[in-house]
Amino acid sequence: MSVEKNNASNTKRGKFITFEGIDGAGKSSHIVGVAALLASRGLTVISTREPGGTPLGEKLRELLLHEIMHLETEALLMFAARREHLAQVIEPALARGDWVVCDRFSDATYAYQGGGRGLDKIKFAELEQWVHGHLQPDLTFLFDLPPAIAGERIAAQGRTLDRFEQEHADFHVRVRQAYLERAEQAPQRIIVINADQTLENIKNKIELTVITNCL
Ligand code: TYD
Predict the structure, then answer these.
(1) Does 6 score more than 80 pLDDT?
(2) What's the CA gap between 187 and 152, in Å, rounded?
(3) Is 213 exposed, middle or buried (0-12, 13-18, 19+ CB in 10 A)?
(4) How far is the CA of 7 from the centre of ligand 1 (A)?
(5) What's the 21 CA to ligand 1 centre distance in angstroms?
(6) Closest atom, ligand 1, to C-alpha of 82
(7) Is the predicted pLDDT of residue 10 greater than 70, yes or no?
(8) pTM (two decimals)
């Protein structure tokens, strides 16, 4: 987690912006860009991620990314890490008036554990209601890209792959599909970004959306 501090005092509740997409869609550098944009406007920005974002959450992340487990255990641990993250980081930050920029949130559980793993999404709706029924992101960017292109990008990085990245192509096709369905259900909140274009074009689209919708 990183914090970009500014001296301006914030009295209003902060906003919560999340970034989603299949592995290799290229959201990381844009998350840094949005945090910098907000900080340049005098806002205090908390930059965080899921699974993770707290000491306990980061331990759970390590397990989730590398240990084989029952598929429902995986889904429950995602929500357990999220509960901790909300309690320790996200809710206090928003209440202080800070903004939160988060790499993945519950849409990822619908996409990966629902679409990818094939678990029942109705159960996620119950868990979502339990864990953050009162809170949804104000804005979500969904980086959309054909899995074949995303796979090439990951392969070009030449690093060790985690359990999700190691999944077969059809897993990522299902994850992408579930993300797009989720975007159709919440078109006001989830902005689909075509991630198969220049970094500059993507940056411009994201900045314009943040400025228009949030600032
Ligand atoms: P990510 O943060 O994209 O990792 P990195 O950018 O370091 O590669 O993703 C962590 C992985 O966790 C990713 O493959 C998606 C997965 N994930 C889920 O399956 N369900 C969830 O609810 C979340 C938050 C992540």
Answers:
(1) no
(2) 29
(3) middle
(4) 33
(5) 9
(6) 24
(7) no
(8) 0.95
